[in-house]
Amino acid sequence: MKKLLSLLLIMSPSVYAYKMTIYTDQPEQTKAREVLSTFKNTYPFNQFEIDFEIKTVSAGDLNCEPYRFKKPDGTEEVINRNLTCHSSNIAREAAKNGIDQALIVKNVEAYGGSGGSIPVMSIGSPPEMMLHEYLHTLGLCDEYEYKASEAGEYCDMSGPNMTFIEPDPEGYPSDAKARNKHSDKIPWYSFIKPQTLITRGTPLTLGTDLVNNSVHATPNSTNAPSVMGAAIGLYEGKTCKNANPPKKTWQPGREASIMEFLDAGLGAGNEQLVAKILESRGVRRKLAEENPPERGIFGIPRRPKEILDVPVNNSSESSNSSR
Amino acid sequence: MKSFCFCLFFLFPTLPAYSDCGTLVNALLKYDPATKSAHFEQFYFTNEEFCDGGINEVNANLEIQLIDKGAKVINEKNIYINTFTMVESLGKKTSKRIKENHKQIEPQFRNVKFSIKVPPAQIALYRIVERSNRTLLGTGEVK
Question: Into which CATH architecture does domain A15-137 fall?
Answer without folding.
Answer: 3-Layer(aba) Sandwich (3.40)
